Amino acid sequence: MFSFIMQSSIIYVCSMSTSGVGDDNGSGNEQNYRGKRRTREESRSVVVEKMLRKEKADRLVVKFDPLTGKSVGKIGTSFNNMIHQIVRDTFSPRITRWADVPKTDIEIVYDRLDLKFIYPHDNKIVMDEIEKLQMKALREWRYAMKCHWKKLGGEQNKEAPKRTPYKKVDPEQWKALCDFFSCEEQKLGYHSGSGSVGTGYRKEIGLGLHSWAGLTISAKNSHNRKQRPLEGGQGSKTIVAHVYDGVDLVTGELPSVIDTFQQLHCKGNRWRNEYAAEKHDAMTHMRASQPVESAGSVESGDEVAQPKDLEIMTQVLGPRSRHHKGYGSMPRLKAVGGSRATSSRSTYEDREKDKIIATLKEQVASQEEKVAGQAEQLAAQAEQLAAQNRRLNETNEVLAQLQKFIPGFQFQPPTGPSSDTSNNLSNN
């Protein structure tokens, strides 16, 4: 009996000590969890595997927008995430430019995509979009590594971050990358063509060429983004994805891009700025004045139909080279061919030039009118002089004949009235 009580007490004490330790650890973990900001983890293809099991297929069919080549739907989102994952797993972290990526690595990306997805290899627009996604993945990966380098104090001490490589990066490659981040070109943001970036904005904010060049690329880009009149709330999703997310599940019809524009540029019941509200009013008025356009269906054969009112929105917001304002970027010219479209900035500059030219033409026309009036006056004066010369010649001829027929004839020209005579006349 006594041994049973002792065993029970020992078990109770052990359980109390264990629970106490567990509570302490639990509270500590909870505090650590609350103090750490939650971030999105890297994709591990779990969603893709679940989709494959649900579809009972070996590969998933990806749908693409025919105008922009962007993938749509949940499968399209997984397709984009898979590209980012393969790029991180395949490309070397030391690559800082897309031109330096080996073609063999790019082929590996396509081969791994073919294992899970079905997409049109013969569609130039789609393949161009996939290449742009790879470029974006490489750029974002490099940005994440540079943020890690800054967090470790690389701006103050370039040797400090080398002891803690970025996740899944070889230590030797990380050291080389730290040296690249520490170079003067990266610190000051000097790169090919940087001198011409934001020239108009540099003049607007009153910065000299040297001061502007001293700003980092991120500071320049931050300033340039603030100049955009349209600031949507689409988040990380493309505008195209938002349009196709609003599809009618019953009829399969796509919503109007004008309605999607209102959804993305309104916060609550208020517009984000007056510019977006004015453009939306212009689009709705133009849509009301035109015949009703038939809605596009999500699936039209093997492709995806174009949403409604896209031409109206493009006409109201203005053209821009390789970009539909309010809808997203367009394929590059190397994929579709053709000439470069006129951007809204160049259109604005052309309008300003036209105004200056029109003003100069008006000034020239006014000067021409003055010159023409002066020419008429000179012509009238010339005619008067010619008439006086003719009368003088006639008078001289008459005098010559009189002197010929009347000996001793001398012509005395009449004298004007004397000053005394003129004064008398004025007094009378």
Which helices and strands, and how do they pair?
Blueprint: H1 2-35, H2 46-55, E1 60-61, E2 63-64, E3 71-72, H3 73-90, H4 103-116, E4 117-118, H5 124-151, H6 171-182, H7 184-188, H8 199-204, H9 209-214, H10 217-226, H11 239-245, H12 257-264, E5 266-267, E6 270-271, H13 274-288, H14 310-317, E7 323-324, E8 328-329, H15 333-336, H16 344-405, H17 419-427
Helix pairs in contact: 3-4, 3-5, 13-14
Main-sheet strand order equals 1-4
Mean pLDDT: 75
Q: Unreliable segments (pLDDT under 50, ≥5 consecutive)?
A: 1-34, 190-214
- The amount of beta strand, in percent, is under 5%
Shape: elongated
Kindly provide the radius of gyration, computed on alpha-carbon positions and rounded to a whole number of angstroms: 42 Å
Amino-to-carboxy terminus distance: 165 Å
Global structural class: mainly alpha
Helix proportion range: 55-70%
- Count up the helices: 17
* H/E topology pattern: HHEEEHHEHHHHHHHHEEHHEEHHH
Number of strands: 8
Largest sheet: 2 strands, parallel
